[in-house]
Amino acid sequence: MKRLSVRFSDKEYEDLVKLSHQTERSLNDLVRESTRQLVQDWLVKTSR
Question: Residues 9, 14, 18, CA angle at the centre, nearest 5°?
Answer without folding.
Answer: 150
